[in-house]
């Protein structure tokens, strides 16, 4: 029952951050890729059939948009 009392609101604020010496500064080192490289890498995750279907869907949507909103 002592564990419940230690976690009660009456025990005060609880720190959820790691100590300063345990915080990694490696987050900035992961930014070596450009946005274009990341997007190109995403295309490799999907099979050709999915990419082809997505391309056809976008082309159809653009075509319909142009037809509906052309003067």
Automatic annotation (TrEMBL):
It is a single-pass membrane protein. It is found in: Mitochondrion outer membrane. Residues 19-31 have a biased composition (Acidic residues). This is Mitochondrial import receptor subunit TOM22 homolog. Central receptor component of the translocase of the outer membrane of mitochondria (TOM complex) responsible for the recognition and translocation of cytosolically synthesized mitochondrial preproteins. Together with the peripheral receptor TOM20 functions as the transit peptide receptor and facilitates the movement of preproteins into the translocation pore. Required for the translocation across the mitochondrial outer membrane of cytochrome P450 monooxygenases. Belongs to the Tom22 family. It comes from Ameca splendens. Its main location: mitochondrion. Residues 1-31 are annotated as: Disordered. Keywords: Membrane, Mitochondrion, Mitochondrion outer membrane, Protein transport, Receptor, Translocation, Transmembrane, Transmembrane helix, Transport. InterPro entries: Tom22.
């Amino acid at each position: 029952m002592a564990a419940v009392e230690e976690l009660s609101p009456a025990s005060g604020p609880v720190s959820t951050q790691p100590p300063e010496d345990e915080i990694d500064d490696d987050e900035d080192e992961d930014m070596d890729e450009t946005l274009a490289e990341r997007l190109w890498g995403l295309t490799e995750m999907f099979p050709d059939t999915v990419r082809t279907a997505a391309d056809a869907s976008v082309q159809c949507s653009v075509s319909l948009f142009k037809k509906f909103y052309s003067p």
